[in-house]
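Think of the structure tokens as a kind of shorthand, similar to the way a musician reads notation: each symbol stands for something richer, in this case the local conformation of the backbone. In the example below we present two proteins back to back. Begin with the first one, reading the sequence and then the tokens, and try to describe in your own words what changes along the chain.
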Amino acid sequence: MTKRARNITGRICAIIMIMVMLTACDVGYKNDGKTVTYHYWNEGSGHGSWKVDADPKTFEDLGDKYAHDASHAFFEGKVIEGADGATFRYLGKWYAVDAKHVFHLDTIMPEADPMTFKVHTSSLTEDAKDYYWDGRPIHVADKASFVVMGDKDGWDTKWAKDKKNAYFMGFASVPLADYESFKPINSIRYGSGSYAADKYQVYFQGHVVEGADPATFREVDFYVGQDKYRAYSEWHPSQVKDYSKLKQVGDMFTDGTHLYNDDLQTFDEADINTFHHVDGNWYADKRHVWWRETLVQGADAASFEPIYSSSFTTGRKEQSSGCDFNYGKDARHVFYRDSIISGADPATFEKIDFAVPGVSWTVFDKNHIYEGENTEALQKYLNKTYKKKT
């Protein structure tokens, strides 16, 4: 998985997790006068509930999973750490305040002022001194000229501006060259959109993109831009002239003349005619093997192969969906990343999930265990396969 893919996957997964949490079919709080309980329902496990550590006499359900009593505040039936129940108020759209703090979901928002805090949308809030995006301070320099560049309640809104800075929402800011002409550059897919420009400069999050031409600059991949001169990885100019002409080789690229790494910098240590992606983090040409971009000293390219993970979860040994990213072997050696594992036997080296509770993968050969535990399941496998124990 490329760095760009990892970043977009991480963002989308985070968004999905929040959306699932906010839209789950919770039944909510129940107070029978003696005990307060929190009830929920999901399609996987059905109905569930737990006792809430609340005083039934002063308990109040505030809606949207929030509640309080005279001493504590609650979110999803759990005590909100640091909240004062007596002064706790729910403001809506997953924000709340007490006498001292502002809360987003069940987390205190540092620096936010509860006395002047206002909720505009589920994403955009403000107090007397700053604006906030998804609970994070934006650190606005000039509130009077602050403008959100996009939907104020949009998952895909990334940029804002005032007359001093451009703001990559809640994460970074960068001095702005021209307020009037500044705008985001169209994103190519959901979750991207890290580039923006004015008539003088191109911006990537909290950085100026060095030497980029605003008039011709466009986003061509996640964290990759292109103008009439070259391609850019994040805010760095690359040696790639035309990103559209690159062919991907695993997490690397080739234009037929040069190889490039994930940051679009040249990787010329390999023979371009025989260089190929083996699997996972492993690459090879006719003579050498690489773990990512690191040469694996002592590896024989002709006999090298990744270690493939197997599972016993169904009661029989099955190949998992991909290779282990860190273990490989050739005819003579076993490797962890770019290093030889001293004494390891390539003929019997394996990585298996024996489905033992509390134990994940076991990495071993017939003589030693390199990762995991010496479980009964492993011993049975060794006895059956090699007629001996470790």
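Once you have a description of the first chain, move to the second and do the same.
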Amino acid sequence: MKTLLISGHKSDIGLVRQNNEDALYINDRLGIYVLADGMGGHEGGEIASNIAVKTVAKLLSRFVIELQNKNVGQIVHNALQKANEEIILFRKNQINLMSMATTVVISIFLNDVVNCIHLGDSRAYLYNKDNNLIQLTTDDSLVAEMVKQGMMRKDELQNHSLRNIVTHYLGTINLTLPEIQQFRVETNDCIMLCSDGLTNMLNDKEIQSILRENISIGPQDVCDLLVDKANAKGGRDNISVIVVQSK
């Protein structure tokens, strides 16, 4: 039996930036969710994230039958490669867009399994029935690599001056695609996708608290509250979040 999914989402410019460089795709019927956080300046980041989301969503939706047949990894990789090519093609011969690129995080639900893949520091989390918040993705960033090598502590990530330097993303001629990860989801479990505009403002305990106290109201209320809280703490970046609940 196909899992029933309900979701909420919100994307906000924040309190500092002049435009919103994040982009989202939400499809509860197909169980496909995509979030991208653009990089490369005022115009470039916004263009890159929208190209990524539109390209990936189009290709994943087109091959939904194949997805049901479990060819998930190859289909997602093909979609990411196509998005990467489209970004590079768009900025060709446009000097002001030469640095445009984007992170991306994708979740695809197939019955009781969620498939996650990401590039960059946009994240996927699992919030389960035991009120545990578990980060499913590992940031592709310089500071995350420093933590891995023991050069700094994880609790220093949020405010580090180098936290915005990502090591893998869409918009590079040397694209490296990670393996797709699969996680089992149970009734009332939630998957949360977010840009670093949320996680640079709120730590995991704060996010967990908002989910625990408000998920019974619904995913949309949780998204609204998360964004409001991030803005209340400074809103230094665009803030985007998708919360998907399995019913």
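Compare your description with these statements about the second chain. Residues 32 and 108 are 5 Å apart (CA to CA).
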